[in-house]
Description:
The chain is built from 15 helices and 22 strands.
Amino acid sequence: xxxxxxxxxxxxxxxxxxxxxxxxxxxxxxxxxxxxxxxxxxxxxxxxxxxxxxxxxxxxxxxxxxxxxxxxxxxxxxxxxxxxxxxxxxxxxxxxxxxxxxxxxxxxxxxxxxxxxxxxxxxxxxxxxxxxxxxxxxxxxxxxxxxxxxxxxxxxxxxxxxxxxxxxxxxxxxxxxxxxxxxxxxxxxxxxxxxxxxxxxxxxxxxxxxxxxxxxxxxxxxxxxxxxxxxxxxxxxxxxxxxxxxxxxxxxxxxxxxxxxxxxxxxxxxxxxxxxxxxxxxxxxxxxxxxxxxxxxxxxxxxxxxxxxxxxxxxxxxxxxxxxxxxxxxxxxxxxxxxxxxxxxxxxxxxxxxxxxxxxxxxxxxxxxxxxxxxxxxxxxxxxxxxxxxxxxxxxxxxxxxxxxxxxxxxxxxxxxxxxxxxxxxxxxxxxxxxxxxxxxxxxxxxxxxxxxxxxxxxxxxxxxxxxxxxxxxxxxxxxxxxxxxxxx
Length: 489
């Protein structure tokens, strides 16, 4: 698509300066192939090098920045995001295709994320540790404190272009670390708008860079030993390869999943249907904790599935700028085509298509399948589409085993009013989070969030992200022993 004269590319934020480059990056509008959402630039190798050197230099300032100053900066960013709520939500919708109702929620969450960052900056507590556990350690005490780790390389995904990037930027500022952020190439404009707010808040010179860049240039950042931590949110295949190349730096990976939900015999049926619809089809299923696999007790099976399918067919789709739209487009036509391919494969393997399954450009309808073999890609891999596969079960143990039969382990929802089953799920599910009487798609931004197995490494959520962005150092204080008095004394 040709860049029109009315589309002025947004500059990049390089260590406190607004810059361009010879490489213009056009940003498509997923809902309208004939329209651009906007444009910006792609960083050059020299610009990445400048940002990296600036981050190294800025660390000498940020590491000594007092808590009240870090807190002030983050509160001003939070206030700035809130003041531009409608504008930022519209940008998210135009460049990602997310329905405006969901984009507004994402902005609201980012307001909270930056505010929580300010609060965590002001409560990075240490610990007093008694050390006199044996005679040789008499009169000694330990004091721990967290120190910033150094420059951080951050790579954020397209599906939450604001809030998932905020989960990297906010804890970095809170803990006194410089950061170079690569926003997603599909929707970078949102974070470049946030850079304007960051600049106005007065971050230390050179401590924040937000640079769209090629994957090849991102790989250079991954391998650069001057960065002390890599935080990446994206696909498992990309993330684990990055870890192999990251060298000695710390690595935090928030990757994918094929989240399961269990609807137990004792579940509140109306609530379970309502929440599973939201979990399966919000943002066209392009959420790593989207409901992809549903395990429904056989005694509820027919009633649950009848209500679920009818409700799925009534979901309103259309322009993402329409406040009434629930299901907008997928991020591009290729993503919709892949979803159809996986659905067709499942049907060819014996699965039953109850509704949906046919793409129209970048739009893909709510899709429900049953009787699908576990080996089908729509079951075993991450669909990242508005597709859910349902299975009946007879015993709760069976449902837990089916959820665990996955390469992934991010979050699981368990609808039950049986306390014993709730505890069993918590103890036995191989995931990072268990949501009782809610969907795996639930997240609030101060909780620890992350997965096991192929779903990732480490945790996000402000307090837990800061733990990875800092190192514990202990100070040992010894009280000198006075020599025993001599007889002449």
